[in-house]
Write a structure and sequence with these properties.
With about 140 residues, the protein is of the alpha/beta class. It contains eight helices and five strands; from the N terminus they run αββαααβαβαβαα.
């Protein structure tokens, strides 16, 4: 597994251990992680802290030129909110751990020129499936069902 996807998976595991939704992300600029995060909707009572949003928040304010050179690694296909933020800041590449549990706005991202790579990682998938089986109502709330 790629070291950056591994770092995103470590974030997802932290979220799971905290009682939250196990989705993790890292934002990488020129081969270095500049922001990492995981879904904190449960832990912080947040409406918006998905893994990608938390990673962006933890990267701090960056110049537009930095975002345009970044890759977002995330354990699960990004939802509408996170995809919109990826587009807003011009992040050109997204690497997705798995999209069997949920397919977000991958097609929208592609049509807007974002390079999408789906790794189909079994460990990412198994962690998500374990959580969905344990807490289906929390999962459905997170994806707006």
């Amino acid at each position: 597994m790629n070291e950056f996807l591994q770092a995103a998976l470590e974030e997802a595991k932290k979220g799971y251990e905290e009682g939250g939704i196990p989705i993790g992300s890292v934002l990488v600029h020129k081969g270095k992680i500049i922001g990492r995060g995981h879904n904190k909707r449960v832990q912080d009572g947040s409406a918006i802290l998905h893994g990608e949003m938390d990673a962006l928040e933890n990267a701090g304010r960056q110049p537009a030129s930095v975002y345009r050179e970044c890759t977002m690694y995330t354990t699960l296909s990004p939802c509408s909110m996170c995809s919109g933020t990826i587009l807003l800041y011009g992040i050109p590449r997204v690497v997705i751990g798995e999209n069997k549990s949920f397919v977000g706005e991958e097609e929208l991202l592609r049509t807007r020129g974002v390079e999408i790579t789906v790794e189909d990682n079994q460990e990412c998938h198994e962690l998500m499936q374990k959580f969905i089986q344990e807490k289906p109502a929390v999962w459905n709330e997170d994806i707006g069902v």
